[in-house]
């Protein structure tokens, strides 16, 4: 009797039925339970198989099928996913090296892979991560690694998973990230997502849908850490352009609105955009010469007729944010000289300071 290769659990069940009904004088008590109880006619005939026989309390291969088999499914190549014939080793037919045993080697959206012998989960690995759109995939047990600094992957069911392994555990391959709905802080990067603005997407290996992408850090100390079309934007509260910043794209044009700042090169620019055009981050304005008609206010210059307001915790994570606010009309009414008394309604009024030139600054930590 010839029996095709079957999943191990089903093979064991059939063996119990066949042996109990056809082998005289043999019972469960005489032969211990066994799995993969199949015998081949020869090493060259792995498809011609019969069941073990219970002889003197032991499972044995019959004389006309003397080769025991450890394979109950198919041998699948780890590299290509194609089916490989079992080979003989020490007189036993088994899967050769660089293969794994599975119920099937190819797969599709309607024919998932299942598991290897009911234990290790497999997933359907499609060419170019097309999720079966252009043909079948191959069953695999080795999903790609998560791209460096990526925060998740898109899977073939349209959901986001933490890693390719998490998707593979549900039998899913990864898919182009653009096919999954995602938060605005996630940037699609091949099948992965990068967290912006802390990271950026770069294609490292052209044509490799799994390993060709990476989320690279946007952190920088100087422009040398950024791409050619980027500049190192300093973090708020950076006193002297020595703190870690983030690489940002250079602007292509700027609003002419004057809001002078001090660039990291020690030059005054009309606003932060104009500084960025020259690949310059900004720092505290005390590092630059104050332009005429302005006075220092943290990391900006305020025009005469305004007062400096600064609020924040004063820590690196929550630095003080500075702004130039027009003076109330009462401050200059009748040609009066502005004083702290005229801005007493400001929440930071108790911290008001007046310079020798009469400029008002209200800086407080909240």
How do you describe this structure in short?
This protein is mainly beta and 366 residues long. The protein has helices spanning 8-22, 164-168, 272-277; strands at 38-40, 49-51, 53-55, 58-60, 67-69, 74-77, 83-84, 87-89, 92-94, 99-102, 106-107, 115-116, 120-121, 123-125, 137-140, 150-155, 160-161, 174-175, 186-189, 192-195, 199-203, 213-217, 219-220, 230-233, 245-249, 261-263, 268-269, 282-283, 294-297, 300-303, 306-312, 321-326, 352-354, 360-365.
Structure commentary:
- This protein is mostly beta strands and about 375 residues long.
- The chain has four domains: about 10-70, no CATH class; about 75-140, no CATH class; about 150-215, no CATH class; about 290-365, no CATH class.
- It is about 5% helix and about 35% strand.
- It is built from three helices and 34 strands.
- The protein has helices at about 10-20, 165-170, 270-275, and strands spanning about 40, 50, 55, 60, 65-70, 75, 85, 85-90, 90-95, 100, 105, 115, 120, 125, 135-140, 150-155, 160, 175, 185-190, 190-195, 200-205, 215, 220, 230-235, 245-250, 260-265, 270, 280-285, 295, 300-305, 305-310, 320-325, 350-355, 360-365.
- Strands 16, 17, 18, 19 and 20 form a five-stranded antiparallel β-sheet that branches.
- Strand 16 and strand 17 form a beta hairpin.
- The longest helix is centred in the N-terminal third of the chain and has 15 residues, at about 10-20.
- It is rod-shaped, with a radius of gyration of 36 Å.
């Amino acid at each position: 009797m010839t029996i095709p290769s079957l999943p191990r659990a089903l093979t064991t069940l059939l063996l119990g039925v066949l042996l109990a009904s056809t082998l005289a004088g043999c019972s469960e008590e005489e032969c211990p339970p066994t799995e993969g109880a199949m015998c081949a006619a020869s090493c060259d005939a792995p498809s011609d198989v019969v069941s073990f026989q219970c002889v003197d309390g032991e499972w044995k291969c019959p004389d006309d099928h003397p080769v025991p088999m450890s394979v109950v499914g198919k041998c699948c190549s780890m590299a290509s996913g194609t089916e490989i014939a079992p080979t003989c080793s020490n007189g036993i037919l088994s899967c050769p090296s660089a293969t794994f045993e599975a119920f099937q080697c190819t797969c599709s959206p309607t024919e998932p892979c299942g598991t290897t012998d009911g234990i290790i989960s497999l997933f359907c690995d499609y060419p170019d991560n097309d999720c079966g759109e252009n043909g079948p995939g191959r069953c695999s047990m080795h999903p790609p690694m998560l791209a460096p600094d990526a925060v998740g992957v898109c899977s073939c069911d349209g959901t986001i998973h933490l890693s390719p392994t998490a998707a593979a555990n549900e039998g899913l391959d990864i898919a182009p990230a653009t096919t999954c709905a995602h938060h605005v802080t996630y940037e699609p990067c091949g099948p992965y997502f990068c967290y912006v603005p802390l990271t950026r997407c770069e294609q490292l290996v052209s044509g490799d849908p799994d390993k060709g992408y990476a989320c690279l850090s946007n952190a920088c100390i100087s422009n040398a850490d950024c791409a050619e079309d980027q500049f190192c934007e300093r973090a708020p509260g950076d006193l002297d352009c020595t703190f870690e910043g983030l690489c940002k794209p250079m602007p292509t044009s700027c609003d002419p609105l004057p809001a002078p700042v001090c660039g990291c090169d020690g030059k005054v620019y009309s606003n932060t955009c104009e500084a960025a055009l020259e690949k310059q981050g900004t720092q505290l304005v005390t590092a630059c010469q104050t332009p005429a008609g302005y006075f220092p206010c943290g990391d900006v210059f305020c025009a005469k007729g305004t007062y400096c307001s600064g609020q924040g915790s004063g820590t690196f994570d929550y630095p003080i944010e500075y702004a130039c606010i027009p003076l109330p009309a009462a401050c200059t009414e009748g040609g009066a000289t502005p004083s702290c008394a005229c801005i007493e309604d400001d929440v930071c009024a108790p911290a008001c300071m007046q310079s020798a030139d009469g400029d008002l600054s209200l800086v407080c930590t909240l």
